[in-house]
Design a protein that fits this description.
By secondary structure, the protein is an alpha/beta fold. The chain contains 7 helices and 7 strands, in the order H-H-E-H-E-H-E-H-E-H-E-H-E-E. The radius of gyration is 16 Å and the shape is globular.
Length: 204
């Protein structure tokens, strides 16, 4: 994928998301997008799974580092987003993206793949469930990334917010922090990005 085509596709996504959706705040910004590109380029994944395509911005950023012959599976439940991200993928020449439409919890078990990176950015109330479902699909030494880990700062104030989404993200953060199979770090990028490394060895 040529950088100029990626830039054109990302600009298209930004414009169309602001014009055609009411949820443009869900769009990854340039800083987070640059981080996802750099991260993917460092890992050089052969397979990526994204849970929550939205309009495809983060999808293309992660795709940037995909090895030749690799594949990126992305899952989106809202089929109204399809024409935006399909057009963007075409502009970028990202022909190794396989888009799945439907409930991620129903689709994930049927993928039957091993992934180098899994990126979670969907229903916040189901983060822990997504984590459990994908964990064995991530190779040892692979990564699970989760967006919105800080949730507008609400996760730093346990007990102060009682809505289900906040409680679920706090539960997810606690779950990953105490999981001995991983090492986890939350970066204060945009709304908080959790980087979860699946240990290749129990001694790490």
């Amino acid at each position: 994928m040529k950088p100029d085509k990626l830039k054109e596709a990302l600009s298209f996504i930004e414009r169309e998301t602001h014009l055609r959706t009411k949820s443009y705040r869900m769009l990854s910004d340039g800083v987070q997008g640059e981080f996802l590109q750099a991260f993917s380029l460092m890992v050089k994944p052969e397979a990526i799974l994204e849970i929550g395509t939205f309009t495809g911005y983060s999808t293309l950023c992660l795709y940037r580092g995909l090895k030749e012959g690799g594949v990126l599976d992305t899952i989106e439940i809202d089929d109204e987003m399809t024409d935006i991200f399909s057009r963007a993928f075409s502009i970028a020449g990202a022909d190794m993206i396989k888009a799945h439409h439907g409930d991620a919890e129903e689709i994930i078990p049927g993928l039957n793949k091993t992934y180098d990176i899994v990126y979670i950015d969907a229903d916040k109330r189901r983060y822990s469930s997504y984590y459990d479902k994908v964990f064995d699909m991530v190779r040892p030494g692979g990564w699970i990334l989760a967006d919105n880990a800080l949730w507008s700062g609400k996760t730093a104030e346990p007990g102060s917010h009682t809505d289900r989404q906040t409680a679920s993200i706090i539960g997810f953060n606690n779950k990953t922090a105490s999981d001995p199979r991983v090492r986890r770090l939350i970066l204060p990028i945009r709304d908080g990005l959790a980087l979860i490394y699946k240990k290749a060895s129990r001694t790490i």
